[in-house]
What we know:
A 6-stranded mixed beta sheet has the order 3-4-2-1-5-6, with helices on both faces. A 6-stranded mixed beta sheet has the order 21-22-23-19-24-25, sandwiched between helices. The chain has 5 domains: about 5-105, 3-Layer(aba) Sandwich (MutS, DNA mismatch repair protein, domain I), CATH 3.40.1170.10; about 115-235, Nucleotidyltransferase, domain 5 (2-Layer Sandwich); about 250-325 and about 460-490, no CATH class; about 355-460, MutS, DNA mismatch repair protein, Chain A, domain 3 (Orthogonal Bundle); about 495-730, Rossmann fold (3-Layer(aba) Sandwich), CATH 3.40.50. The chain has about 750 residues and is of the alpha/beta class. The structure holds adenosine-5'-diphosphate (ADP) and magnesium ion (MG). Magnesium ion binds near residues 547 and 619.
Amino acid sequence: MAEGLTPMMQQYQRLRKSIPPDTFLLFRLGDFYELFFEDAKEASSLLNVALTRRNGVPMCGVPYHAAPAYIAKLIKAGRRVAVCDQTSEAQPGKIVSRDITQVITAGTVSELNLLEANKANYLGAVYASDGLFGFAYADLTTGEFRLMQAADHQSLLDALVRVGPAELLVSEEQREQFAALENATSYDSYAFLPDQSSFVLCEHFKTKSLDGFGCADMPAAIGAAGSIVHYLKHQLRRKVNQLKIIRDCERAAGRLSQASGNARDLVSLRVSLEQLPKLRAEIRKLKERVEYGTGAKEAGDPTAATNGAHRKMIDRIHEGIHEMPEVAAKLAGALADEPPLALKEGGIFRDGHNADLDELRSAAREGKNWIGELQEREIAATGIKSLKVRFNSVFGYFIEITKSNLAEVPQHYTRKQTTVGGERFITPELKDIEGKILGAEERSRNLEYQLFQQLRDETLREIQFIQETASAIANLDAITSLAETARLFHYCRPQLDESLRLSIRDGRHPVLDQRLIEEKFVPNDTELDGEKERLAIITGPNMAGKSTYIRQVALIVLMAQMGSFVPATSAQIGLVDRIFTRVGANDDLSRGQSTFMIEMNETANIVNNATARSLVILDEIGRGTSTFDGLSIAWSVAEFLHDTIKARTLFATHYHELTKLAEQRKGICNLNVAVREWNDQIIFLRKIVSGGADKSYGIQVARLAGLPKELLDREILAHMEQPDTSASQTGKPRKKTKSGMPTAEKPQLDLL
Ligand code: ADP
Ligand code: MG
């Protein structure tokens, strides 16, 4: 699909995917906001604008300066609108970068002057928790933010009627419960969870607890309030609080040093630099706490070493941040608060920054006054009250006279152009003033461009410090994100040592754990001592949770070794030199490789490179070929990993013949994901237990997926009694091997 699209349409599709389907995407293209595909079809009728087609793609557009009125119409029709703007200047041969700069909804239309002045415009949210009903609402124009909790449904409805929010958020999970509410928009259930919400609120209000707000014991209300802040920040990409943030100064510095940066990059840099003293002071406090505070003091304390590492890390970050107050002050004094993207159109610098620039600007301004005076004089001289001096970029300044007054036009006017309503003239005096104005404007624009380059070069002299600072901040950002996640999701500090053990209690998959909504994530243990038990064969029906389990173990090890806390109640990780994975290969047809070929390449890489210190995760090898070949390969890979490489290995497979390996090899153990059968149905318990799976439950899973009964009832097994055809193609007779590996003469009937 993507190959046929132009780069710009690929950019469009990417942005389109990042917003909900019911939100219109207004895509800036030159002087227009364009809508495409389904958006265009719907919007053209809602907005009463023409629907056209380019290269077969339906589209419609509105002029950018009139956008607010059109957006208002879409909002009134109950829809949301994402506005995508150009975020870089056009450059030959390059596509303009674009990003969604805001999402506008009924509850958040403040900037658009679409509001009825005497009515507050509230964005609200409701959330039910423990039989209580929370309601929060905010008015973005005034900053008013309130929350309440009701003990019964009726009180909630009363409050809703009283406040009348223009837009109301409900948790996706509680959508049905609140189905009767008008204007309800369902939103990510996760954003309402009271734990997550109070964290978001504390962060937003820069406080350690919500006690001071008198709402610490109101989980339902907090859930609702937190979702509003989350929605504004993440869904609508608003900068709530205009939240004095450190911007991406690494990118800004990068662009500036490659001469592709603009004045906004310098402003980003300035805003970031201005935050540094505060940031550095915070880090200093942290440093003191680690050095003199509650850290471990006894030599035998296992946390002592970790604290040493923390201290070093904090020191490094502290030293990496350079405050550069002179640079910040210079940029602040020079640049306008919101300079344009373009570098050659002026408007970059503040008045007072440069005397020459001030002079040129005032000459241009004065010129405009002269034009005003000239118009008054000409009206007086000719007696034509409707006479106007106007400007366009083709003719410059001209005098416009309507048809009915053409008889009064003096001799010395020179006719330039006839229009529908009248005629346009110039005079020598007008052209003279025009020359002065345009000359001054052009010179001031050129001067601004020169001054910009100068300022950029001066700033870039500090590039080394800027880059060091940016990288220290990036490190800090990574570490604090890990810390925040650890706190929010109750991670534990793993214990790392030089053993070969892998011992995890209640391990969770860091992503699924947060994402599952309907069922709770079931934690699982892992126990490999690296000696007696180092290779686990994990069997169980499709969809049971095999892949999830082995990936979660790999992720926990990875997180532990990168210095993060891990999603478990405890974890002991014997250091791993590399993690090898063979999971879900996608066909790479462009390289002419089949799934099976990729799988074999990856497997070859593992057996050639893994060591006894490695962790190997194998997810279903041997699938893309005949049963016999597949099983044989899986079998011998498992043997080789166990006997020769001795790496800790988790091997998920639907070939439960492999469970026989445990009888022959002392370091191999069997695990399976427990399921329960109930009236022909299968219930997934998601619990890893020891032992091999006794059957595949393929039929049950197929039923679960909705395969018709006729297909499920058909007696297929009989057909499988014939020899495996692909095995005989090789021409080699297949015998029962010494290891007990199965042969072609006895196909694996239970594989169904
Ligand atoms: P398999 O590899 O056995 O076919 P998966 O690991 O792909 O199964 O898991 C299938 C689905 O089961 C996952 O997408 C997830 O929704 C759910 N699942 C897996 N493990 C768990 C778990 N521990 N707790 C809850 N749900 C799980
Ligand atoms: Mg799987």
